[in-house]
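User: Structure with S-adenosylmethionine, tokens only please.
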Amino acid sequence: MTAGTLYIVPTPIGNLNDITLRALEVLEQVDVIAAEDTRHSGILLSHFGIKGKLWALHEHNERQKAEAIVARIAEGQNIALISDAGTPLISDPGYPLVSACRAAGITVTALPGACAAITALSAAGLPTDRFLFCGFLPAKQQARISALEALVSEPATMVFYESPRRIVDTLQAIITAFGGEREVVLAREISKQFETYLHGSASTLLAQVQADANQQRGEMVLMIAGAKLDQQTIPSDALKLLKVLSAELPPKKAAKIVAGHYNLRPNDLYKHTMAE
Ligand code: SAM
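Assistant:
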């Protein structure tokens, strides 16, 4: 018997037209659709005239359900995984299922589609050559500040999901950890009627959000610019290696090798060599 396939299917994050033709085709054809919330997804599917068989797969039952799904696929059924919105597994359930399928040698195919983090990043105006997706920060303020402090020297653009209830506290935590001058972008209600992008220093953004209650509503992605060279600590070992390699190689090549090794920006190391 030929085993089936697990399809990872993104769904819209606001505007229903953001579902792809291929997603609709797969959802129509599979034997079972595993959904985070069957009632929520039932509404979406009926909007598109899809009468799929829904199974609940959420964070509390996904380990047990994964086994049953793997068994079904091994018997030849095709199953789609969807979440409430966007791409499954991205701050959403699905990781235990996908890893169980991979371990069982089952084909997993992910369809490209909506994801709030990637959409926000592509419109933010912050560097996109390197970014770090951080999901949700801890809910308690002290733990949030500690999590942010650990990222102070991070050179990549940082992308967070945030709740509107916590946005003011989080901007305050960013000011505590990074200082008020760090550049921040807040993407709100992407693909919906009140889509807004606010950008500026952390202090400016905090003042804007505090002054306008509408900016504390809806769904949001918060992005923090990566540390610039003067905000980063380039590890001394990296500087030593850079010096040795720069004596033998063109500066750009030396910078690229050291950056790859120490997770730094090549351009910052290149500038450092040139400033020496
Ligand atoms: N898997 C989803 C994805 O691919 O984007 C994310 C799921 S996570 C549980 C939900 C969070 O994503 C929200 O709290 C918010 O931070 C972000 N989000 C989802 N839709 C959004 C939208 N339309 N605009 C801004 N942020 C959104």
